[in-house]
Amino acid sequence: MSKYILELKNITKTFPGVKALDNVNFQLKSGEIHALMGENGAGKSTFIKVITGVHQPDQGEIFLKGKKVNIKDPNDSKKLGIAAIYQHATSYPHLSVTENIFMGHEKIDIKTKRILWEDMHQSAEKFLKELGAEFDPKRRMSTLSVAQQQIVEIAKAISTNAEIIIMDEPTASLTKTESEDLYRITEKLQEIGTSIIFISHRFEDMYRLAGRVTVFRDSKYIGTWGVNEVSNQDLIKAMVGREITQMFPSKNAEISEEIFRVEKLSRKGYFKDISFTLHSGEILAITGLVGAGRTELCQSLFGIERYDSGKLYFEGNEVEIKEVQAAMKLGIGYLPEDRQEQGLILDWELDKNISLTSLDKISQYSFIDRKKEKSMAKRLAELVNVKARSIFNLAKELSGGNQQKIVVAKLLTSDLKVIILDEPTKGVDVGAKSAIFKIMADLAAQGYAIIMVSSEMPEVLGMGDRILVMRNGEITKEMAVEEASQEKILAAAMQEKI
Amino acid sequence: MSEKSSKNKISLERIQQIREFSLIGFIIVLSIFVQFRNSNFLTMSNIDDLLTNTAILSILAVGMMMVIITRGIDLSIGATLALSGMVTSMTVSNYPSLHPLVALLIGIFIGLISGAIIGLLVAKFNILPIIATLGMMNVFRGITFLISGGKWVSAYQMSDSFKAISTGSILGINNLILIAIIIYLVFYYFINYTRTGRKIYAVGSSPESAKISGINVDRITWLVYSIMGGLAGLSGVLWVSKFASAQSNTASGYEMNVIAACVIGGVSIAGGEGKVTGLISGVLLYGILENALPMINVSPFWQNAIQGAVILIAVLVSALIKRRIGSSNKIRRED
Amino acid sequence: MVNNSNNGITLNREIKSEKEFSLKKFFFQWEWLLFLIFIAIHIINSQLSPYYLNTYTLLDATMTFLDKAFIALSMTFVIIFGDIDISVGSTIALASVIMAVLYNAGLPMPLAILVCLLVGVIAGFINGILIVKFKELSAVIVTLSTMILYRGIAYIILENQASGGFPMWFNFLGWGYIKTIIPFILVAFIIAAVIFYVLLHKTTFGRKVYAIGNNDVASLFSGVKVDKIKIIVFTLNGLMAAIAALFLTSKMGSTRPNIASGYELDVIAMVVLGGVSTSGGKGRMIGVLLSIFIIGFLRYGLGLVNVPDQVILIVIGILLIFSVMLSNLKLFSNKS
Amino acid sequence: QEGKYAIIVKNAGNPYNEKEMDGFEKAINEIGGEVILKAPAEPTAESQIIMIEQLITQHVDAIAIAGNDPDALQPALKKAMSRGIKVLSLDSAVNAQSRMVHINQADPEQIGRVQIQAISEMIGGSGQIAVLSATSQAANQNTWIEWMKKELEKPEYDQIELVKVAYGDDLRDKSVSETEALLKSYPDLKGIIAPTTVAIAAAGKVLTDRGLQGEIELTGLGLPSEMAEYIKNGVCDWMYLWNPIDVGYLAGYAAEALVTEKITGNPGETFEAGRLGSKEVIQAGDGTEIMLGAPFRFDKENIDQWKDVY
Ligand SMILES: Nc1ncnc2c1ncn2[C@@H]1O[C@H](COP(=O)(O)OP(=O)(O)OP(=O)(O)O)[C@@H](O)[C@H]1O
Ligand SMILES: Nc1ncnc2c1ncn2[C@@H]1O[C@H](COP(=O)(O)OP(=O)(O)OP(=O)(O)O)[C@@H](O)[C@H]1O
Ligand SMILES: [Mg+2]
Ligand SMILES: [Mg+2]
């Protein structure tokens, strides 16, 4: 018996025009938690999909417990005891949580093949409880928040009793406490002998969980290290190919006059009595636990959702924001939480994606000037450092992090004064993260006012000038970054209003 | 996520239930109104007529529901029905001693083949359902015309046992109603209590997820069109037996009635949604409209408009109710 | 791909902004296939009938199918949304019936025509409003209901009567020629086609329509007035149905509540054969135009050699499926 | 004498229309011309207009048409006539401006009246009756129903009450539910007149299934093949129709007479119509027509010899 439960040798996979995996090797020990890291677009997700049979490799071999296996489709991998949580949720929005968890391996009466609904609901509830979630498994998937859906995905993987569980960025949309639950579960799985591949852009996750770490870069295998044997700096260098000395750029923006003021803004059932002011050059970080109502607040400020009461002042004048166009006209921009659903048109080329928010800039009497459009797209795509061959690449061909950069580029087409960024670094690699932070700092220096929603403590502390903590739809604490600390923020996020 | 808040939430099942109740409420109000105008409406004999006349529609609706759940649509069922009816009745007229069960099997078989072809086109050749079925609708109608040579098969050419398929009764219940009930029971079980049944929903709710989690999407797609075809084939036999006449334009345009019944019954054209219990109320409402309008003496020129308005109102009202529940389900805290 | 790991500095990658010309890509387009079918149909037809290949015949033939083709132009927009409008046949009936009744009640014909267009606009607007306000309902459901409703209203108005007796000049729409051989309807259609082509492919409006068809949520977040544009498109579709009603009514000289029944499926067939996917976001006007003429000339040509209508339907059905099957081959890229 | 003769019937896939085409073809074969048979898939005026255009392009000499709409074909048929094509209608007339002559299967007055006479005889001169027609705008049916109502005004029908005119839209399912509605809404109903094939067969079926023969009488116009069953089982004692083959046949000869200018469509002209003998053009309304004969009565005695014919 081989000492590796899963081994992949010389895997190569090309998509039309892109080599996603280039002669990659990988070894998973039985019962270990193995972190897989690398830049956006390094090929991690593709690699996972090769293991689970979603993609067929062009060449290379897969060995399971020393035996060569041929995985033709996801069913094969399921039968071999491999389960995966994919980066982009693979849920059934119309179906109940229970069904999402058990789809394809429903509990059935052995004789009659009848589905045992009650049994399933009960075990679903049990799985959810184990994961620290308490929602009713009969609920429809589409009524859950992104984080809750993620928890269901995890429950789904656990429910198959797989020997190997692969998690592709499971923490990307989780907050600290929820991540803790996930750590606990993952460790428990390890205890009972499950082998786990864990993909994440968070170093925190890796240090907390993994024994070993493998790094991919530009579709190639770079190396595997024991987590304790390798320094942070070396790991970053392996991933990015250069050194990143400073994650958060030094801020030299001058915080000046008030631009935007929110007074007692409420939306029934979502948020209540929200008040704050925003100055030019300032980065206001809003943090809190998942479901605290941050996204809802941002969407109301951007005119996607109505607010019920409260006042908004823009540059001193009272304004109403009832639709997106009103917000845009004032100079408010919004980077949505879910880039694939809300930010991009995946089947479109990059240039068209970038220009969509500012069609009037590239048109005359409503006639589009393609030349202008292309040059604008090229300029902005290069500005945000997108990894793409040309502006005619389709958005869906980019990796997650690069897609996020395109959404940022879209914002930069308009003349904005206030930029609202909702989880801008979700699922973004270190390199891109620091690039996005750099862009943020630059924008602040140019006098933009920025609202940044984030669940990442270091990011909030590193980038914010002022920090708002939300809990249950209300602001529980406002503090300057100087007086803030992780403990204070967490306390405010979890307690009642102080 | 506190425990309390999640318990208050209206569950998936509740939403569906309330929707169905609202539709049933609508049906009751409508029935009372009609009864008021014509006291014959709620008599046993009329209810029997109503159910008998709705049976074929309801059988087709089950198949259509499954097709629509997978995000598809089948415009060819009227044509399939005609083809199966024509072939069966031609066979019966040539072999009058043929056992009615054999006739039923022939019809189902022809329908199955027609459906399987469509399923193949949709699943294997990735042709959008609306195009594949629009195309095959023309083809099936044309074939029916060609094999019949433009002739009809009339009552005197059909054996009594064949005609008895739809006029006979067991325990006082008309065969058509009985067949429809059996089909509803079978498919209720199939859809709710078998893995394959649930996969139909998975495919409709998110084909990408289904594919990635190892569900054979093509097979399921192929299956639902085949089932639809089989049910259309069965309906073809029942149709010609009921009306004792087979023509090449039998049931032309009937697919629209079936789709309308599904839609009223809460089957979402966007896929992933639809329940057998909801479908029954949709089919019933449709059947009542067809049955009641002639009985309350409305001018024939008003019938179309009334039918359209009722469908529109039923659909809008149920959408409003769904929205009410949906939004209260989303709101997390009541102050 | 550039690997700039060695020099240790951040270098913004150069991103190409000129399209690489690929001969293969150029030729393997859906529209070329349609074009080939188009040519093939003319060759076959002219082999079959000695009357076919003749300027007069070809020009005259267009008169038989261009009325519904007007709707195909705007239906293209609707289907790019991923929606569908099956109420257009009924809209024709309603608009036409109201026009005829008002004319016979003494309204001058030009005003009656205006009312006809207005009815189309209102019918389309109602569709649009319902679809936008009731997002949980799909367009199929809404237009299925209004399909029954609109025709129902036409029946209420005209019952079993026909209404006609229009002034002589109204005949010109359906039967008139320009320069004695070019059908007026052809000229009108070409003008409309150019307008719709430009609208879809050259303007911000068209771009937004594609955006909504691909991802309406992202469009909303990008500041596209999704609802407004949807309403405009459905209203436009109603208007085009009313224009079709004018030509059809002129062609028939009178109208009845049952005219234009089944038109919706013909129009949809034209649009989808043109490569516009009912799943939304894809398709080009050129394809639709080619497909209009393919179906039209095919029908006309086969009818000219007196092939039974049923057989023509089989041929069109198979053509529809077969060509879409071909287009699904990986060879054909079908981008907007 | 070679010529190209075309016939357009209402729609394909209907034996009545097929027989009309048969008769027309037979006549033209006797005459020795080329025959073109056309039948649209759906019975709409729109599809007939396209066919007329196609026939104009083929330079036919004559078009005989069973119109799906009396008025809507006018512009198209006028265009045909202006190109020198002789146009006549048969079975279902187009308006007088769009045709040179119409082949009338039977006098509409007679058709209307004879059905009332029949039902009166069947129900013994008193009781409620209803009419189950095709679509509400079917022109033929509507004229016949008008004549039925006129006949009912006669004093001998004082005891007969026409309670409802229902429309089955020539659809099987709708005709059945309309029949059932009649039975339930008018429990005292004595007779049904269904002047159209689909409706009379549907009514026959309903009455048969409910064992109502003898209680509710049925008559009207129907195809012998469709009605054979119900005539034999006594649900319908007798009904009427004319011979569609003869309608087509007469249209063929009339077309030839027009083309060879034996007639021009003016009243008083006569011509030889093959086995049907000499026929005369007569005035009818503001147009002219050629009458085939009286409607033919089908009953138990003769139905067996006709049921296999059409
Ligand atoms: N279906 C596909 N078609 C074409 N190219 C693809 C496809 N899927 C992935 N790629 C390309 O393959 C490369 C690797 O992508 P992959 O999603 O595996 O990256 P990743 O390492 O998971 O990145 P991230 O951290 O952003 O999720 C990228 O360049 C991407 O554009
Ligand atoms: N406990 C819950 N029950 C039901 N729905 C919830 C719950 N928590 C959040 N949601 C839903 O999830 C969505 C996201 O929540 P919201 O935007 O209010 O929070 P957030 O602070 O932005 O959290 P996130 O970090 O996930 O963005 C909302 O649409 C909300 O309705
Ligand atoms: Mg990835
Ligand atoms: Mg959020």
TrEMBL record, chain A:
SMART domains noted in UniProt: AAA
Keywords, in A-Z order: ATP-binding, Cell membrane, Membrane, Nucleotide-binding, Repeat, Sugar transport, Translocase, Transport
Taxonomic superkingdom: Bacteria
Residue span(s) of domain ABC transporter: 6-243, 254-497
PROSITE patterns noted in UniProt: ABC_TRANSPORTER_1, ABC_TRANSPORTER_2
GO molecular function: ATP binding; ATP hydrolysis activity
CDD domains: ABC_Carb_Monos_I, ABC_Carb_Monos_II
InterPro entries for this protein: AAA+_ATPase, ABC_carbohydrate_import_ATPase, ABC_transporter-like_ATP-bd, ABC_transporter-like_CS, P-loop_NTPase
Subcellular location: Cell membrane
Keyword rRNA processing set for record: no
UniProt cross-references to SUPFAM superfamilies, sorted A to Z: P-loop containing nucleoside triphosphate hydrolases (SSF52540)
Keyword Repeat: yes
One GO cellular component term: plasma membrane
First and last residue of the signal peptide: none
Record membrane topology: Peripheral membrane protein
PANTHER family: CARBOHYDRATE TRANSPORT ATP-BINDING PROTEIN MG119-RELATED, D-ALLOSE IMPORT ATP-BINDING PROTEIN ALSA-RELATED
The protein's name in its UniProt record: Rhamnose transport system ATP-binding protein
Species whose genome carries this gene: Halanaerobium salsuginis
From TrEMBL, chain B:
Chief place where the protein resides: membrane
Matching Pfam families: BPD_transp_2
Coiled-coil boundaries: none
GO molecular function, one term: transmembrane transporter activity
Record keyword Ribosomal protein present: no
Localization per record: Cell membrane
Organism: Halanaerobium salsuginis
Protein name: Rhamnose transport system permease protein
Any GO CC annotation of this UniProt entry: plasma membrane
Membrane topology: Multi-pass membrane protein
TrEMBL record, chain C:
Keywords: Cell inner membrane, Cell membrane, Membrane, Transmembrane, Transmembrane helix, Transport
Keyword Glycoprotein: no
Pfam family, one: BPD_transp_2
Localization: Cell membrane
InterPro entries on file: ABC_transp_permease
Positions of transmembrane segments: 26-44, 64-81, 88-105, 111-132, 139-158, 178-200, 229-248, 260-278, 285-305, 311-332
Zinc keyword on record: no
Membrane topology qualifier: Multi-pass membrane protein
A GO cellular component annotation in the UniProt record: plasma membrane
GO molecular function: transmembrane transporter activity
Protein name listed in UniProt: Autoinducer 2 import system permease protein LsrD
Organism from which the protein derives: Halanaerobium salsuginis
